[in-house]
Write a structure and sequence with these properties.
Two copies of one chain form a homodimer. Chain A is an alpha+beta fold and 329 residues long. Chain A has two domains: 145 residues, Pnp Oxidase, Chain A (Roll); 126 residues, Winged helix-like DNA-binding domain superfamily/Winged helix DNA-binding domain (Arc Repressor Mutant, subunit A), CATH 1.10.10. Chain A is 34% helix and 25% strand. The first copy, chain A, contains ten helices and 15 strands. In chain A, the strands form four sheets. A seven-stranded antiparallel sheet of chain A has the order 4-3-7-10-11-6-5. In chain A, a hairpin with a 7-residue loop joins β8 and β9. The first copy, chain A, is elongated. The two termini of chain A are 30 Å apart. Chains A and B meet through β1, α1, β2, β5 and β6 of A and β1, α1, β2, β5 and β6 of B. Chains A, B: Keywords: Monooxygenase, Oxidoreductase.
Chain lengths: 329, 329
């Protein structure tokens, strides 16, 4: 336990408060002179159902405090997981935060942003003292929501949420003393997820008489071709397949690949085959996303990418850079 | 936009509010007669830094309202992801909620629970009107926090948080018209995570002259043995490996498996081999969890289990039931 007086370390205190996860909102209003005002806040909360009321709080030294204090209406926007940049924009002072933003009609007179998970148009009800902040309580006069997964803020960074799952089977009960193989091992879960997904397209692979290795080679070339044999081998090596030249020669002999000056390339037959397999994969993927839900799928992609970065043995980059890399959160 | 009057659908309104993710807290106090009081709340928020203040709100018709209204002190506990059952216990009325719970020393006189992500001991500062709720603002007099990942509540259910990741490479740029193979496909991410993990133990597998298939068979038997050949084949089939009898016979010939009346079983050599491989896997796993962090690892396990359930082709259960299955969240 940290006693708060004295000494009191505000950074440490903020870190402890950061264990409480929140969504992220932007609260907007219009100043007396008509200027649109907006600020990022995660101090939002629902308060009352009858009448419907919500609250949020703002630092007393915030430049926007007078505008919110004087205003009769303000709007709360619960940001979706695609709106991290918007959150950052409205968290900073200065500049015209609304520049270039699409705004919906504003019956309340306060700006209404788009692309959010939910929005609440409020009539100011109470303003309360809260130490160095003012607590604003508003009555909700209109609201709407979307299916967009919400953006989160927790332990000082942006995050995604995912529902808690039921266990895959149950607790491990290894029969071999010292064996630690369990369903809670990421290594086991990766393999099972991978093979079950592949299982969903195995029929299509078999129809086309494609082995798993053939599939890796053809899908690699569908992203990036032509490639020389050693380049293909370098991309595939981490799967443990020692490609040699046999597998590739066989694909050439079967008319799926053609040899060019620049390297190997998909033939029309090869393109047709991989497009069919990828269509099957897309269908398995769509079914999986449908079952898991958008929020969970986004979080799973996000976490698999972290795991892949954390275990990257130094693979050659597969995809071309088309946009500057985002900073790591 | 849903206008709120009339008609106003409270369920729909609550669903929209549910898009705002929150942590989960239990707030405790002691009634005038000494009875410990506690209630689950997700209406918590930080308010002020100087003085350090937090708030939460409670329904005016809550049975615990008089106790909190009369009390000079209350404690807020930010629950960790292991405390879902505790959250449910304190969300229900009746019964002795504190029965059997470990409590820390209570300098404030209010019960202090253990195993939380963070705890704030507060002196009641303000009570404000908030429609059908009362808003409690307290000054934090002591606090502490742990490294336990917090429990979340979002869109009407418990959830885990995970930090947003940087992209694995960058946006896809397929060269083949219509090809949809991209780094955002779960199918691709599963495979890459699986093979990269396996890459980390490949050295150990090669030392022991074990193929991927040998590894699957030996680890299966480390969990559950003896098994008949068709049972092993049924467990392995989803990986696409057609086991036949060749691979198993080879493992017997090499002295890794022994044939018994009940089926195949690990020999002492086989046990030794798989224990070494599993130790290597455990080390890769520990390194991965260390790099990703506990919060992300827990969320990733959770989501992989959802994906595995969603794509399960009807595999035989690998692990014995030792505890009743938890209800799906």
């Amino acid at each position: 336990m940290n006693a708060l007086a004295p000494p009191f370390d505000p950074k440490e205190f903020r870190r402890a408060l950061g264990m409480f996860a929140t969504g992220v909102t932007i609260v907007t209003t219009t100043a007396a002179d008509g200027t649109p005002i907006g600020i990022t806040a995660n101090s939002f909360n629902s308060v009352s159902l009858e009448p419907p009321m919500v609250l949020w709080s703002l630092a007393n030294n915030a430049r926007s405090l007078p505008a919110f204090s004087d205003s009769t209406h303000w709007n709360v926007h619960i940001l979706s997981n695609e709106q991290e940049a918007l959150s950052n924009r409205f968290a900073r002072a200065g500049e015209d935060k609304f520049n270039g933003l699409a705004l919906d009609m504003q019956p309340s007179g306060a700006p209404l942003l788009t692309g959010c998970s939910a929005r609440f148009q409020c009539k100011s009800a109470f303003k309360y003292e809260g130490g160095d902040h003012t607590i604003f309580v508003g009555e909700v006069v209109q609201y709407d929501s979307s299916a967009l997964p919400p953006l989160l803020y927790v332990t000082g960074g942006y995050a995604l949420a995912s529902r808690k799952a039921a266990p895959v089977s149950t607790e491990p009960q290894a029969q071999l003393e010292g064996a630690v193989y369990s369903e809670n091992l990421l290594g086991y879960l990766f393999g099972r997820a991978h093979f079950q997904f592949l299982h969903g397209i195995r029929g299509t692979l078999q129809q086309r008489q494609l082995s798993d290795t053939d599939f890796f080679v053809l899908s690699l070339l569908s992203v990036c071709q032509p490639l020389q044999v050693p380049e293909i081998a370098a991309h595939i090596a981490y799967t443990g397949v020692d490609l040699g030249t046999g597998a590739l020669q066989s694909l050439v002999q079967r008319g799926l690949l053609v040899q060019e000056a620049g390297g190997l390339r998909l033939s029309p037959t090869g393109s047709d085959a991989i497009l069919h397999v990828l269509a099957a994969a897309k269908s398995v993927e769509a079914d999986l996303v449908d079952r898991m839900g958008e929020m969970e799928s986004a979080a799973l992609r996000n976490l698999l990418k972290q795991a892949i970065l954390a275990t990257d043995p130094g693979l050659p980059k597969l995809w071309q850079a088309t946009a500057p890399a985002q900073p790591a959160a």
